Amino acid sequence: MVERKTLLQGSGIGKVFGGLAALENVDLTVNEGEIVGLIGPNGAGKTTFFNCLTGITIPSSGTINFMGEDLVPPPRINLLTRLAGMSRFFILTSILWTVLMLSTYLDSVEFQTEFVIAMLCVGAFRLFLGARLRHAVPWTRGVTLLFATLDAGIGAVLLVKFAESYTDKSFFGFFPLEYFMIPTAILMISYPGYYFINLLRKDVKSLFGIFTRPDAVTKLGIARTFQNIRLFSNLSVVENVMLGRHCRTSTNVFSIVLGTKFQRKEERETKEWAMETLKFVGLRHKAGFLASNLPYGEQRTLEIARALATNPKVLLLDEPAAGMNPQETAMLIRLIERIRKSGIAILLIEHDMKVIMKISDRIIVLDHGQKIAEGEPEVIKSDRRVVEAYLGSAYAAK
After folding, report:
1. Are 189 and 155 in contact (CB under 8 A)?
2. Over the chain, what HEC string results?
3. What pLDDT does 174 receive?
4. Residue 57 gets which letter from DSSP?
5. Is the pLDDT of residue 200 over 80?
6. Is the pLDDT of residue 183 over 90?
7. Contact predicate 127/91, CB 8 Å
8. Across all residues in the chain, what is the average pLDDT?
9. Which residues contact 75 (CB under 8 A, 6 or more apart)?
10. What is the pTM of this model?
11. Burial status of residue 398 (CB atoms within 10 A of its CB: 0-12, 13-18, 19 or more)
12. Which tens digit of pLDDT belongs to each residue from 123-162?
């Protein structure tokens, strides 16, 4: 038996949504030239698992390695806690002083009051933000980056204000409040500096989703289709496939505006590639049709063609046979076999057991976010836990 090279490997993958575990400690291996089936009842976590593999959803735990590249390095909880803790320390020390310092430059007493109230509300929100950041809530990452950038800018403004006051000797009072601008400014500049420097680290890149963007994953060589068809219905068939090729092009907006020779050449090559891909899946004769005018089965095939246009090493198919008639399903099986023969590994979600049992080399079974079985089709068919997951324990006991 020829040993196959491992392309995609997931280890201990978990995903929690608001306290609900959609995935829990799931392992996966996809080898070169292999078709791996992924099955399970509705709500088992199959599509969530696909989303984690392709960067649409960042796993709460676990690692994903694709051809030696870590897509989701394990986040360091201690670093996460330290960042959130520093956020709280920074808020409690510098925000209040910022309110006091900036308010001394405002002439209107009424506006001073409104300004102080507004800044206290911002401080309260940032306390909440720091707590949510610790639990890796996705939206907090971008907002935290925005605040860190603003912090650095406000710190720079405070230094300039202090320099102006010191030069003009416009200090006032027995204990000039302006002297507090120096430590406040240092805090407001050093904390974002620490933040941005840490973003260069792999584990923090994973935390902020920088390293696992879906487009970056696609460019590495993992393509997918979706459970619900997501074509550009007002574009032609060939244009849909050309869009899939975008990750392999390098033309920038200036080349497009100027219509350079390189841009025209790449556009021509992209269309040729798209036409070859359509020929491969059997849709070349409909290249000029609007995608919305294709029959349902051909729309499914077109979505596969668009994924193939990215030139993937691993292709993820999410229920490609859903809604197809027997003739269309038979054509799909033949297409998947051709894709495998072309050297592309396939990970397949499917509810049609005839399809999954016929073409899969291995099958992984999920139930309530956990992997309950893995093996060859014949082994999976007779596995008691699989029968229970689909038909219930009473049926499995017969």
Report:
1. yes
2. CCCCCEEEEEEEEEEEECCEEEEEEEEEEEECCCEEEEECCCCCCHHHHHHHHCCCCCCCEEEEEECCEECCCCCCHHHHHHHHHHHHHHHHHHHHHHHHHHHCCCCCHHHHHHHHHHHHHHHHHHHHHHHHHHCCCHHHHHHHHHHHHHHHHHHHHHHHHHHHHHHHCCCCCCCCHHHHHHHHHHHHHHHHHHHHHHCCCHHHHHHCCCCCCHHHHHHHCEEECCCCCCCCCCCEHHHHHHHHHHHHCCCCHHHHHHCCHHHHHHHHHHHHHHHHHHHHHCCHHHCCCEHHHCCHHHHHHHHHHHHHCCCCCEEEEECCCCCCCHHHHHHHHHHHHHHHHCCCEEEEECCCHHHHHHHCCEEEEEECCEEEEEECHHHHHCCHHHHHHHHCHHHHCC
3. 45
4. S
5. no
6. no
7. yes
8. 79
9. 136, 203, 204, 206, 207
10. 0.67
11. exposed
12. 777 777 766 665 556 677 677 777 777 777 877 877 777 7
CA distance 119 to 165: 23
